[in-house]
Amino acid sequence: MTQINRPATPDDIPRLVDLLMLDAQERHAEDAILWKMADDAPTQIEKALTFALTAEQQPFRQFWHVADDGGQITGVIHAMMLPVPPIYAGPFGEPGLILPDSFVAANAASGTVDDLLVAAEDALHEAGARIKLASYVAGEAWRTAFEASGYEPLTLYLSRSDLGDQGMPVGVRQATEDDIPGIVECSAENRQVLFDIDPFWEIHPDADPRFSVWMTRSLTLRDRDMMVQGESEDLQGYIIAQPASRLHFPPAHNITGTGVIDDFYHSELANPVALNHGGEGASALLRAAEAAFVNRGIGAAFVVCPAGWASKIELLESAGYETAMVWSIKR
């Protein structure tokens, strides 16, 4: 019987739990701290699948497709429609994202990865995605398939799982409400660098007021640290150390000890090709975020960085960060 690709059903859940456990174990083998396994990982996977395949009200559209070889499930791919952050224009609408919890068994038929990729892309296209993104952590087969299909690196997720205990650097302080205008100004510079690197990050006309509202609210959230460098009237940079979210971590993983740094900008990073002044100020901000994580009992951190921002990558790699996940784009 010829293998087919079809949407997953609730009846597939037991086999999918087995496959996604193998998938999670591959990530765990890459970095046992960053991709820590949940004590009840099979249960968490089952809960997530049951919700995805049965709940009528979903926070976003998602798609699960399986490779069915005569009734045996040999592979699975997971995709979703990714909401556009409010500070970006999103002229092409919501992009489609293929998530890292996609897996093909060792005994799957040749070409299963490619066939599942086509099935996911078709589902995303039918849902209206004009741009497609793909993410991967482990599995050379997925990286090869994405590259062969025309995906190119867009965003790197660099990680470090030995944050140490070096304390808060001099010259970095917690942000206050008086710093919000300066943070918004720094963010505007950051967004311009992003857009210059890739027009995918087209800036929304109302980005500044929207970001100001979000930063004001963020000051009230107790699960994160917002830090700045410089006086309120002349900020050199800002960084936000916040907890990880399920967008980047499949349900098999325990994320309570993992932090994420997405909002991070310093004037020394304004040139995406080369660091200004050796990056000392930007490095101090990064160390401050690491210290904040350590104070909260967080031992691993992700830093989100565009693949084309060479100076920022240089700064992170010199601080001991390595690429742990890649998001790629197909236009």
From TrEMBL:
InterPro entries: Acyl_CoA_acyltransferase (IPR016181). SUPFAM superfamilies: Acyl-CoA N-acyltransferases (Nat) (SSF55729). This is Uncharacterized protein.
